[in-house]
Amino acid sequence: MQYDLIIRHGDLIDGTGAPRRTADIAIRHGEIAAIGDLGGAHAQTEIDARGLAVAPGFIDTHTHDDWMVFQSPEMLSKVTQGVTTIIAGNCGISLFPLVTDTIPPAPLDIMRGGYRFESVQAYREAFAEHPAAVNVAVLVGQSTLRARHVKQLVAPASAHETELMRRDVETALREGAIGVSTGTFYPPSSAAPEDEIVRMCEPMRRLGGVLVSHMRDESDRVRESIDETARIGKALGVSTVISHHKLVGKQNHGRSRETLAQIGELARTMPLCLDCYPYAASSTMLRPERVTQCDRILITWSATHPEAAGRYLEDLAEEWGRPRREVAQALLPGGAVYFIMDEGDVRDILAYPDTMVGSDGIPSDETPHPRLWGTFPRVLGLYSRELGLFPLERAVHKMTGLAAQRFGLERRGELRIGHVADITVFDPATIQDRATFEDPRQPAVGVRHVLVAGVATLCDGVPVSARPGRFVTSTLVKTDARAGASAAAPA
Ligand code: ZN
Ligand code: CU
Asked: Taking the model in full, what pTM does it have?
């Protein structure tokens, strides 16, 4: 048998969570064509994967890479981690459908300059024309829709405005969005009551899709927020994802036991799961009112004082001889890393069986949170290998099979014959994140080969200038838009 590529003698970790086994894997026409002992088969290219793990390409379930796929299509921060698919449009923030030359309100400003797509279709076509090194699937964001249609962002939307958002949701799903993200934590959406969201998302009742939520409150009212998220998902009858589950503020540390039990209970009656990044610090827009919630705050960017990026607010406050809150106010608009979580909670949440891995990296930050470059190798190296939080097979499942299943990403997430050949080969003994809070753009080590639809994006640890990424749709969305999905693939 003649194949395009054979990866030989690797330890196959197939994405289902099953124990690894040594086998060869062959690729033809961008798909997995054979798995097993392929001693008699030949290929133009062969990779010797002895001693290495061969896994499905990692799926970054939580990103803000909508604009980065165009700005930096080589996607080095993701490719070097073994990521082959990203889900964009999280936290209520999507680039589409919004066309504006002005800077939209925070946190939409993290993708400033990119708001030039009047629809998901326009974005999809642009991506087909200028593909990146990773596949992209998109959610349409609540705050983007509110910024587009709602005049008084500090108030609930009028019936007419809600109807306009509802139409946009319907169009987005028909054009290939995999679902809707809400971001009621953030100013543009915090005034939206529960029933506005249900009305806005009404097309999901018929068309399906995934509801992904950056919840209203991850602090004292986290239980109420989980209940609200679940109620909305249930009212719509859709698969629901709690974004970057965490417990913010010292008084809430240790409550993951309580919230995970609550989520587990709710998940008995509906498809409900979560994503998480493996760090005890969060990162988002700079909010002076939050400075009392944690001791240390690292500035990631500031429009008024660019030189503050990479500095701690505490140090600036001392230098300026002014209170932290005042300094934070003076730095606006900006972004920050908040050392605000408890490591025990991070581990409990990460270890929860239905937790997927999502980096939540913010590529536009001057000094980004290290999760942008380190998330996946950190889960595999630190949390699985070194701390033994879960076996490697389970870690891989969280970033592949589980994610593909929960988002309905067809023929991805598992090593199976007929699946798209999105494959990551890594060294389980050495894989490790290198990015730190002080030096956040350090590529991880240990990822050796990455293939997207059979095309190498990383070869022997070195990024290759290939752009095989495709626009990916979801089987959970029931429209004919999916039919065009593979047609959008580059030839
Ligand atoms: Zn978020
Ligand atoms: Cu996010």
From this structure: 0.96
